[in-house]
Input
Amino acid sequence: MKRVLKLHSIFIAQYLKRLMEYKVDFLIGATGILLSQFFQIVFIGIIFSQIPALQGWSYYEILFIYGFSLIPKGIDHLFFDNLWMVGYQIVRKGDFDKYLTRPINSLFYVIVEKFCVDALGELVMGIALLCVSIPHLSMPFYWYTIPLVLVALVFSTMIYTALKTVTAAISFWTKASGHITHMLYMTNDFSKYPVTIYNNFVRTFITYIIPFAFTAYYPACFFLTGENPLFNIGGTVIAGVVLLAIALFVWNKGVSAYESAGS
Amino acid sequence: MSMIKSFFRKYKPFTSAGFQDIVAYRANFICFLIGEIMKCFIMFFVWKAVFNSSESETFMGFSMGDMVVYIFITFLTGYLAYSDGAYAIGEEIVDGSIAMRMIKPCSFDMCFLFQEMGSNIFKICVIFVPIVLGVEIYRFALYGAIQITLSAFLLYLLSLIFAYLTSFYINVCYGFLAFFLKNLWGTGLIKQVIIDFLSGATIPLAFMPPVLRNILNFLPFSSLSYTPVMIYMGMYTGTELLYRMGMQVFWLVVIFLVSKLIWKSAVTRLCVHGG
Output
């Protein structure tokens, strides 16, 4: 574990050096994300200029849930972005050979190779929204609130990463699976709003099938109301662990099924 | 007549190449489409919640039926008017491969245009009918009568064509800019986010403060999305309809001329070494 962390920091240091070369690229990426989130917030603001509450949720509660949803998404984007490339091109071009010839776990190597600073756009916006909304909310606070926030963030990030890993691993059989990752990843937008606004089908889907609701709404709901910690936080933990187990299983199966591109 | 015929014969291979290209990657295309259309459903549920929570039947002049049309037809318009066929033009000038285009007896923009038309034919086949039918069935169930009129539908199609051509030539201009901007994931994202906002695809222009609304209505971007959608909804009638479509044509001509001007000045200075 120590070796792994050390390696990870070396990789990040390398990446930061590369980044210093291309400061503008990074600024542009982060600004793009920030801007697109900003317009979404303006949109929510316009809605709330006309109605006092959205199906019982106040403006600041919605901002809190929205902001919370961006943080695990941003953490996953920051550290685990390279998984996209597996499905888009690494396997198809036969470049995955490289990862198999190194004396470290292939999944770990894929993950640490890239450190995607564009994600700061999501993280900054997420934290800003929490900072804006929290003073306006009377949230229950217990001694275990802070540890539970950390638990929720770790396991919701795990949900994102595990889903990307599973869908990326499909490419070991099909050669390319970036479009499948994209399709499932887009459902995460559903988690930005309270699940109570959706119909039963969508609600069941994002709770039990692709459990993105556990990355934002359920944990945020617990922090807002203090109710149901077992389902709201426990569900996040279980969803994260189960998906990660599936992801590792599929990835390892996939690696053994991998055939390089012959040329 | 024979000129028109030979014109189409000349560019037909580009169209079929574009068509075959997208058909070859149809699984990718369908998955991306499903991913994108999910956003419409999120907006649908958000608006449903808004109307459930609101005492009035309308939201700043839009009813729930209007909002559904707005969400899905905006998506459809944006999807069909989207153009990135010419994005690589800046790079082609930098690396000199543009020379290959110049030695062919066809104009550069028509090549891109007809190639993209091939993929657009496929897109229209796959999404146009389901979305329009879906929206109209929803409205029929809501109001008990067919809401769309034939003239609104035909005018929408015409307006959509203007929107596509404007988008195409804006993209040609942007492609030349790629010289300076480099073609990064981030620049593309910023461009798209800004155009979506200015064109009324993110937030209906009607919801914006009057000053901003008037400015955006005048700029070329509203003709990319907002104008066709409003025409579909039947919000524009009489002289206003004429004025809006006139604006579309006006901006199309302006942007077309600008792109030609950039092309001319780029070509006269172009110098490609060796091969």
